[in-house]
Amino acid sequence: MSEAGVKAPATFDTSRLTLYQPTIGDAQAIFDRYASDAEVTRFLSWPRHQSIDDTRLFLDISASQWQEWPAGPYLMRSRSDGRLLGGTGLQFETSTRAITGYVLAKDVWGLGYATEALEAMVDLARRIGVRRLAASCHPQHRASWHVLEKCGFVRDAAASEQVAFPNLEPGRLVDVLRYVREFAKPEGR
Length: 189
Known about the structure:
Elements: E1 11-13, E2 17-20, H1 27-35, H2 52-68, E3 73-78, E4 84-94, E5 97-104, H3 113-127, E6 132-137, H4 142-150, E7 154-155, E8 162-164, E9 173-175, E10 177-182
Parallel strand pairs: 5-6
Antiparallel strand pairs: 1-2, 2-3, 3-4, 4-5, 6-10, 7-10, 8-9
Helix pairs in contact: 1-2
């Protein structure tokens, strides 16, 4: 639970998105829309899903995160047509430190959904008592770091982190770009 004991909503809306806690019923759509797509998963730190069982494992992990922490992964659907667009969420290191990111199906790249989802995660993190929100990206993934910077994240040049990108070169560690957003402790806490 967060410092303030606040649990994130399982579902909420932004102007164009419905963000919601994934369920096992989402497995096929996740697999088909983005998790099995080699181009979509290219710059991600998790391996492309080879089978629906990989997606079910993700959903089991997601449920555990939601049980242990104030939030976890969210899926994004279009409010206009209900189509699954991708995923985002918060992964907690402590009750006041979390990591965020996003993944979108290829057919909705460049339409502003990443920015909208990331802004929603920033707002949510602040509301549930997160004090430091971080995100990492591959140095060649220019579109991703542009979105992070547009949403007020600052590159943490002092942070040195190496991450494997299993969909690029399995086993090879790459220096990633680390971004952070810091939030002031709310008054009265």
